[in-house]
């Protein structure tokens, strides 16, 4: 029975809940298995590959004719693709700058699928030796319908185009220098829901839509995760919340926006700062001011953005074990790769991770009791670097007696061009995180607190498992889940033997790899890929999460898949 199940990329909702209001993510990809009037089911609809230059990979597609009466004729071709400002993938009739269409060879071009049957099509991907960065394209499946007026001499002429279903290709070329992940943030816009009838109808008149422009200026796609901080005129924290939603993937060269609906603050003047992580240790940053009036309208000031500066620092992280009472001295080498002088100001902050593993840094969040910042000394705290020049920073950590477990912090390098006098240019923030292990007395413990089962279209599900670190030291996670199906009591193969109801094993799956630490007291969500092919019925998921101990944290949950969308 397990052979019915297939995996594909997750379909992520473009709206989720935050603070009682919906969180909109325009940078999201609707990646559900495709269905149309002929009941064509395609899997997978998104193909994500990491390949080395010169390598080959074979990709298979499952095309299922779910009609019980009509045969399907499918024509396959390759097309270029691009991403709209709303985050949707679109087919292109012209060659795009990061095209992989020339890398794809179709092993099938025209197939007939009888009613109720499945056909496996295949494509070969061959990466050129000189390729770097990312490449994108689509294999398009066109459903043809018989044209009874056409000449019968040529078989394909008897069919006319009806509709097309794409399978999108996202390829990352690895193993060669030159891949650049770069992101720029732009203008921040504030729209009170009371000023927009559609927003007001959905969210009421006490919310506001926050929109931040972003642009992928690198040569490979990035996965974005945003956070925004709002402060009043007295610098008091008003909001610190998630920005954006959905899958968050942005192709190179694409301009888009990430958005959030949040509560409307009281009338007054505020400062908003948006941080967007995209795969590096340092986020893209924009900042602006805005005013909320008593009539629930807004006035937004000019937006300042951090210009991405080419500054290197080595090492990029400090991850060491130091016993209680010990002292360690280490250096950080900062190199200016710009063609102009830069000024660098050094500060310190707290480091923490989001539920999906994104690292965030804050200079103002309250200490969780696990900060190593009071033990840290740095010299110098301010310096200027000429082009191609380096500065060695000296840092020391002195651990007090009685400390044990994990302690964390971040050295923040705020770099700005020394010749830039623009009032709206923010410093580039470079983060140097510190993960400190202080023995003895290390306690590793954790628990799986929740299993969420998200039912997708086309009889698919996604398992989301929440783990919480209850120990005193940071851990990395891996895990798997076993899925079982409830076999109801009944006769065994027409023999007069009545079987008892029981759960039968269907599959054992692995969760997607999580490389970010889970700090003490923090939680993490592990997600499966989309699992397709489930029939309505009763199921059980049994989850194991490994966190460095021999015995994993476990949890199980029963659930029911319905005919229509919905999990019980």
What tags apply to this protein structure?
mainly beta; seven-stranded mixed sheet; six-stranded mixed sheet; 1 helix; 1% helix; 56% strand
Overall outline: globular
Q: Whole-Å distance between the termini?
A: 22 Å
Secondary structural class:
mainly beta
Biggest β-sheet, characterized?
7 strands, mixed
Number of helices: 1
Short description:
The chain is mostly beta strands.
How would you describe the overall organization of this protein?
- With 568 residues, the chain is mainly beta.
- 1% of the residues lie in helices and 56% in strands.
- Strands 17, 18, 21, 22, 23, 24 and 34 form a seven-stranded mixed β-sheet that branches. Strands 5, 7, 8, 10, 12 and 13 form a six-stranded mixed β-sheet that branches. Strands 26, 28, 29, 31, 33 and 35 form a six-stranded mixed β-sheet that branches.
Strand and helix layout:
Layout: E1 6-8, E2 15-18, E3 21-24, E4 40-43, E5 46-51, E6 56-65, E7 72-83, E8 89-92, E9 104-106, E10 110-113, E11 118-126, E12 134-146, E13 159-173, E14 183-192, H1 197-203, E15 207-216, E16 222-223, E17 225-232, E18 237-243, E19 249-250, E20 255-263, E21 268-277, E22 284-292, E23 298-300, E24 304-306, E25 311-314, E26 318-321, E27 327-336, E28 342-353, E29 359-362, E30 376-379, E31 382-385, E32 390-398, E33 405-417, E34 425-426, E35 428-438, E36 446-456, E37 460-469, E38 478-487, E39 490-492, E40 495-499, E41 502-510, E42 523-527, E43 530-532, E44 537-546, E45 553-561
Parallel strand pairs: 5-13, 24-34, 26-35
Antiparallel strand pairs: 1-43, 2-3, 4-6, 6-11, 7-8, 7-10, 7-12, 9-11, 12-13, 14-15, 15-20, 16-19, 17-18, 17-21, 21-22, 22-23, 22-24, 25-27, 27-32, 28-29, 28-31, 28-33, 30-32, 33-35, 36-37, 37-42, 37-43, 38-41, 38-44, 39-40, 44-45
């Amino acid at each position: 029975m397990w052979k019915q199940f297939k995996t594909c990329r997750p379909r992520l909702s473009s709206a989720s809940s935050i603070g009682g209001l919906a969180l909109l993510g325009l940078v999201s990809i609707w990646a559900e298995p495709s269905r149309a009037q002929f009941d064509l089911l395609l899997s997978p609809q998104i193909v994500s590959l990491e390949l080395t230059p010169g390598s080959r990979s074979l990709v298979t597609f499952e095309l299922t004719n779910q009609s019980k009466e009509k045969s399907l004729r499918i024509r396959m071709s390759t097309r270029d693709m691009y991403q709209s400002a709303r985050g949707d993938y679109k087919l292109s009739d012209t060659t795009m700058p990061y095209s992989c269409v020339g890398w794809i060879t179709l092993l099938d071009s025209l197939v007939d699928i009888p009613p109720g049957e499945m056909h496996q099509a295949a494509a070969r991907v061959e990466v050129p030796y000189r390729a770097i960065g990312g490449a994108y394209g689509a294999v398009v499946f066109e459903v043809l319908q018989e044209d009874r007026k056409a000449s019968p001499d040529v078989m394909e002429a008897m069919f006319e185009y009806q509709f097309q279903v794409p399978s999108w290709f996202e390829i990352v070329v690895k193993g060669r220098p030159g891949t650049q992940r770069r992101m720029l943030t732009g203008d921040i816009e504030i729209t009170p829901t009371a000023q927009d009838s559609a927003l007001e109808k959905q969210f009421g008149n006490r919310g506001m839509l926050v929109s931040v422009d972003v642009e992928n200026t690198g040569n490979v796609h990035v996965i974005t995760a945003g956070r925004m901080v709002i402060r009043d005129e007295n610098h008091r924290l008003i909001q610190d919340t998630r920005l954006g939603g959905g899958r968050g993937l942005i192709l190179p060269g694409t301009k888009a926006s990430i958005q959030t609906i949040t509560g409307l603050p009281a009338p007054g003047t505020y400062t908003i700062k948006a941080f967007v992580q995209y795969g590096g240790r340092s986020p893209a940053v924009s900042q602006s001011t805005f005013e909320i009036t008593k009539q629930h309208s807004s006035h937004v000031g000019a937006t300042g953005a951090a210009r991405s500066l080419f500054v290197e620092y080595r090492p990029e992280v400090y991850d060491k074990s130091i016993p209680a009472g010990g002292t360690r001295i280490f250096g950080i080498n900062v190199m200016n790769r710009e063609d102009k002088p830069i000024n660098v100001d050094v500060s310190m902050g707290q480091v923490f991770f989001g539920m999906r593993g994104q690292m965030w840094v804050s200079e103002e969040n309250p200490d969780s009791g696990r900060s190593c910042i009071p033990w840290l000394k740095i010299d110098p705290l301010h310096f200027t670097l000429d082009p191609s020049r380096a500065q060695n920073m000296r840092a020391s950590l002195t651990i007090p007696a009685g400390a044990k477990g994990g302690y964390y912090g971040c050295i923040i390098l705020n770099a700005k061009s020394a010749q830039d006098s623009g009032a709206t240019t923010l410093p580039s923030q470079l983060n140097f995180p510190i993960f400190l292990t202080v023995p003895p007395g290390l306690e590793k413990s954790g628990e799986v607190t929740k299993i969420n089962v998200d039912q997708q279209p086309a009889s698919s599900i996604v398992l989301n498992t929440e783990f919480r670190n209850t120990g005193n030291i940071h851990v990395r996670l891996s895990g798997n889940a076993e899925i079982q199906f409830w076999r109801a009591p009944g006769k065994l193969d027409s023999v007069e033997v009545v079987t008892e109801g029981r759960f039968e094993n269907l599959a054992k799956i692995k969760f997607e790899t999580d490389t970010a630490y889970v700090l003490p007291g923090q939680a993490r969500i592990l997600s499966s890929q989309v699992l397709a092919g489930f029939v309505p019925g009763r199921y059980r998921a049994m989850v194991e999460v490994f966190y460095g101990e021999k015995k994993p944290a476990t949890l199980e949950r029963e659930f029911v898949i319905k005919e229509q969308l919905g999990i019980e």
